[in-house]
Amino acid sequence: MIRPYTPVDKPAVLSIWREASALAHPFLTTEATDQAEAMIRDHFLDLAETYMADVAGAPVGFISLIDHEVGGLFLRPAFHGRGIGRALMDRAVARKGYLELDVFTKNSIGRRFYQSYGFTAGEVRINGFFGHPEIRMHFGAA
């Protein structure tokens, strides 16, 4: 089930983000991950339009949007490959149409998912916060 985020979901979002990020971003330092978590908790979630994916009543994933930007799509690793990420992305496409996002070049899990969904790769640049290269990806017509 896909549903809108509520403030009560904040601990679940942070837990999901930590779990999924550990798998997809093992190249990030603990310090950088701690700082990113604080930004998500204290700022990002309040600005974003976020949707939760629940399985058996428990949150297992989320997607966060700011305008046409996918700020994050994360699932608990145990739920990968079940169509949940696709369902979350389908909700984002239905709401926004055209989407953009950044994915680390070293995040093969994310790159593979976005490419299979139909995103096209654009420019590569260095992420200003983490200092790692990322690819700008696009879906649909602007």
Can you give keywords for this protein?
142 residues, alpha+beta, 3-stranded antiparallel sheet, 39% helix, 32% strand, globular
Order of H and E elements: EHHEEEHEHEE
Mean pLDDT: 95
Q: Assembly state here?
A: single chain
- The N- and C-terminal alpha carbons lie at a distance of 29 Å
Shape, please?
Answer: globular
Q: Which structural class best describes the helix and strand composition?
A: alpha+beta
Query: How can the largest sheet be summarized?
Result: 4 strands, antiparallel
Helix content: 25-40%
Count of runs of 4 or more consecutive helical residues: 4
- How many strand segments? 7
Percent in strands: 25-35%
Low-confidence stretches at least 5 residues in length (pLDDT < 50)? Answer: none
Tell me the Rg in angstroms: 14 Å
Please list the strands of the largest sheet in the order they lie side by side: 1-2-3-4
Structure description:
- The protein is an alpha+beta fold and 142 residues long.
- Helices cover 39% and strands 32% of the residues.
- It is built from four helices and seven strands; from the N terminus they run βααβββαβαββ.
- The strands form two sheets. It has a four-stranded antiparallel β-sheet, with helices on both faces. Strands 5-7-6 form a three-stranded antiparallel β-sheet.
- A hairpin with a 2-residue loop joins strand 2 and strand 3.
- Helix 1 packs across helix 2.
- The chain starts with a strand and ends with a strand.
